[in-house]
């Protein structure tokens, strides 16, 4: 029987990388999707004991992102966990931010999840999980990065809808709302956040929560 598989969308050196390593430690093979070959290669080298495959894709390009997911799904023959991590940080307040800029950011931070799940659905089966890195910006946006709060609020909303849609097939979705600032030490290191995401993905389905806060 093949090993379970996690596919990490927007994989890199931060939380997404820690998520990939945490699930590899738990016995998963790993698919990594990112915008740049260099960081993907570095992350791949940091993961032991797993079949690690990488694909470069522009997540705002529906065709490119769909092809990346399907390439990994075809290679492994399954996807058990789909982790969505990206967001766009643009330091502009609501009076500076243009509508095209807002839509561009939302296309990455929210639309990318829609593309990823639709592409991954044929490879997800009962017990499959969709996880996303949420943020307190959904509730407490910083006005100087107005589009980020919109992305994170939209991401959480979409995860809730995905969870209800996928539940009849035994697949669940969860957003982990990180209520703190990422740091190299303390409760909000990438590894600690990744542990919270792993715990959310493996929670008891009988008491499933589609949004899980992480406050350290």
From TrEMBL:
Coiled-coil blocks: none
One Pfam family from the record: adh_short_C2
InterPro entries xrefs: NAD(P)-bd_dom_sf (IPR036291), SDR_fam (IPR002347)
Residue intervals passing through the bilayer: none
Family: Belongs to the short-chain dehydrogenases/reductases (SDR) family.
Name of the protein this chain belongs to: NAD(P)-dependent dehydrogenase (Short-subunit alcohol dehydrogenase family)
GO molecular function: oxidoreductase activity
Keyword terms of this UniProt record: Oxidoreductase
Lineage, opening ranks: Bacteria, Bacillati, Actinomycetota, Actinomycetes, Propionibacteriales
